[in-house]
Design a protein that fits this description.
- The chain has 344 residues and is mostly helical.
- 74% of the residues lie in helices and 0% in strands.
- It has one domain (39-317).
- The protein has helices at residues 25-33, 36-61, 67-89, 99-122, 125-132, 135-145, 153-170, 181-201, 207-229, 235-261, 264-267, 273-286, 292-337.
- The two termini are 43 Å apart.
Length: 344
Amino acid sequence: MPDNSDLPESRPGLEPMPSRISPFSGPIAAWGRIPANIRGAGFVVVGGFLLIVMSSLVKILGQTLPAFEVLFVRFLAGLIVIFPLVWRMGFKITHTGKIHLHATRGFVGFMGNLCFFFALIHIPLADTVTIQFSRPLFMILIAGLFLGETVGLKRSITTLVGFGGILMITQPFSVAFDPWALSALGGAFFGTLVVLTVKLLSRTEHIVTIMFYFAVFTTLFALIPALYTWQNPTLIELGLLILTGTLGIVGQGMFSHGVALGETSFVMPFDYMRIVYGFFLGIIWFAEVPGIWSFAGAGIIIAASIYLLRTENRKKAPENALENTLENAPEKIEDAGDGGAPKA
């Protein structure tokens, strides 16, 4: 018989202590049961709201502080966030043979954000945000004119219609035209170049390497003009600057996680909620009531951009299927050579 003398004596009336269960285990499990597409859309919607709140704070701060100063703090926040990740992974992750391309991406990213910030400060929030969503239109334009891509009749017409939406918002041939709208268009154009440079870099570079050098170069590009125009912020302005940088990082992180979590064709249309937020916060915070042309232009840009997005995804679907077929081909050949017998 086994010796039980070392075991604690059972005492009447005492029951074993239950294992400690986290109060969050239930909600976490319920969240995990939600389809990935829905979770991804949720992250995109919330992240987009945080980014529009950040844009609103930029508009507020830009009334009393130089735009270069606000922009520098925004980029510096990104560098502070990415540095611990680089430290944990080891500085070998920063080794690259394409420093010139990283610098180029940093410059166009700096210019894109600078144009966006100037537009936020000087024209209505809703119009600025809407024009930023014209990047798919610029992508088609660049692909057709400079990259030698065959655009096709339908996408060409859709792109022209989308630019018609931009004309409705900016009204360049009327007395209502504000030259600062060109800054918003510049932000959309440079934002498109950022996407193109990321595609080139992602072929050989680690994502953390791309993020690190973007944070480094954009911070450096913003530092010099920020020092030249620096104005000591008040305590309230300092708090808003910190909040602006934090919202930018958290919002962008949630957006990126949402896109990675769900299917692009399902998740990306939810990003257009930013335009809705821009209209809403513009009315609430800045008393900017959009005119009928702003609503009409926004509707056209959204429709054209979503159409181009879905067209691009349909183009990629056969390519992805071909890649999967080629990747699985060796296994299928091996199975056929074995006569279909199960492997040991």
